[in-house]
Amino acid sequence: MGVVKTACTSRTLAHVLSGIIEFFQSPYLSLDEKIITLHFYFSSSLTCTSPPLHCYNIQMKKKTPPVTAAFDNHEYLHSREGRIIRVMAEFSYPRHKFASEGILDTIVFFGSARLKSPKVAKAELRALKSSTKKVSPTELNKAQHAVELSRYYDDAVELSRRFSLWAKGHSSSFAICSGGGPGIMEAANKGAALAKAPSIGLNIKLPFEQHPNPYISENLNFEFHYFFLRKFWFVYLAKALLIFPGGFGTLDEMMEILTLVQTKKLEKTLPIILYGSSFWKKVLNFDYLIESGMISPDDLKLFTFCDDIETAYKLIVQHLDKEVNTRKPTKGSQFYPLMRI
Q: What is the domain extent for residue 57?
C-alpha cells in the first residue's frame, strides 16, 4: 500500500479496502478493465476525499446485457402469447418440405397403432400359451383376436407397395402418407420403403403409443403438436384414402373427412375405402343411422367397403389414372387450392 500517497487514517484505509471489494464484485467490467482501473487508482495522488474505487469508470463503461430477439426467445415462443407463431410454423414447415421434395399428392392410410404384423402377433400368442404364469381368458382372447386382425397389416404393406410402384411409373408428385406411428401406419410406410419410394409420416406428440416408425423417408418425417394442423395436411394433398380397422383416433379422422366430403368443403373427388367390412359394420351401424334419420341413404355413397387387395387397388388406381390424365397446369404456387378454408 506504499504507493498510495495519502495521509489517510486507518478509517480511510478501511474505506479504500471496502471500495476495492465492492469494485471487484461489479458485474459491469471485465477482469482486464478492473485491473487497468485499479492501476490508475493507486497511481493517482489520493486524498481522504477521493471518491471510493467503485465509482471509477463504472458509469462510463457500464455494459448493456445482451437482448434476445423475439424469434429466438424460447420462453416466449412456448408461451400462450407465442401460440400463433407455433401454429403458423406447423402449417408453413410441412408446406416448405413438400415443395422442396416435389410432392403434390398423397395416398393416405389410416388405421390402428395397435395392430401388429402376423409374425409379431403369433409370437405373442405363443408366448402366452407357453407361459408358466397364469394367463386370464381375457388376455388369451385379446391375443387371439390380434392374430386375426394382423392380416390387415400385411394387406396395408402390399397396397402401399403397389401404389408406390404405380406412382413411380405415372407421377413423381405422389407419395404414401400415414400418421407415422406403429401398426397400420408403419405398414403403409413399410410398403413404400419396399418399393423404394418416398413416404410421409405425420407424427404427433402423445403420452403413449405414438413414436416414428423406421420406414418414413428421412426428409418427410414430421412431428405435430396440434391435431387440427396434422389433419389439415392429411387432407390437403390427399387424392385417395384407405381406412383400416382402428380405434378412437381412426374413427375421429374418418368422421371428420366424411363430414368434409358430405358438406362439400372439399373441391375434389376423394375416393374413401373402408377396408375390412366385417370390422366396420360391427363398429358402426350405418343402417340404423339411416333408419333413425341421422344420415341419408346417399351418404353411404361417400365411401366404399373393400375386403381384398385387388379390389381396393383397382378402385383407387382407376381414380388416380383419371386424376393424372385430366390434371390442369397449375398457376403460381404449385400448391393449388383444393379446399375451401
A: 10-61
CATH number of the domain that residue 162 is part of: 3.40.50.450
Q: Cβ distance 203 to 222 under 8 Å?
A: yes
Q: Rounded CA gap, 56 and 196, in Å?
A: 71
7 confidence band (pLDDT: 50, 70, 90): very low
One domain for residues 19 and 107:
no
Q: How many structural domains compose the chain?
A: 2
When mean pLDDT is compared across 64-68, 89-93, 226-230, the lowest value belongs to: 64-68
Evaluate if residue 121 carries a pLDDT over 50: yes
State the average pLDDT over residues 314-332. 78
> DSSP letters of 6-60?
----HHHHHHHHHHHHHHHT-SSS-HHHHHHHHHHHHHS---TTSPPGGGSSHHH
Whether 51 maps to a domain, the answer reads yes
Same domain, 47 and 157: no
Euclidean distance between CA atoms 261 and 80, whole angstroms: 33
Indicate if 183 and 313 belong to the same structural domain: yes
Residues 107 and 230 in one domain: yes
Enumerate the β-bridge partners of residue 201: 178, 221
Q: Which DSSP state fits 270?
A: -
Residues forming a β-bridge with 224: 204
Grid cell of 4 as nine digits? 498510495
Q: What is the pLDDT of residue 12?
A: 62
By the 10 Å C-beta count (0-12 exposed, 13-18 middle, 19+ buried), 283 is classed as middle
Residues 224 and 284 in one domain: yes
Identify whether the C-beta of residue 217 lies closer than 8 Å to the C-beta of residue 160: no
Closest CA to 109 of 28, 45, 201: 201
Residue whose C-alpha cell is 469494485: 23
DSSP structure string for 134-199? ---HHHHHHHHHHHHHTHHHHHHHHHHHHHHHHHHHH-TTEEEEE-SSSTHHHHHHHHHHHTT--E
Q: Output the 3-class SS for 203-244.
A: EECCCCCCCCCCCCCHHHEEEECCHHHHHHHHHHCEEEEEEC
Q: Which strands make up the sheet holding 272-275, listed edge to edge?
A: 221-224, 199-204, 174-178, 105-110, 238-243, 272-275, 304-306
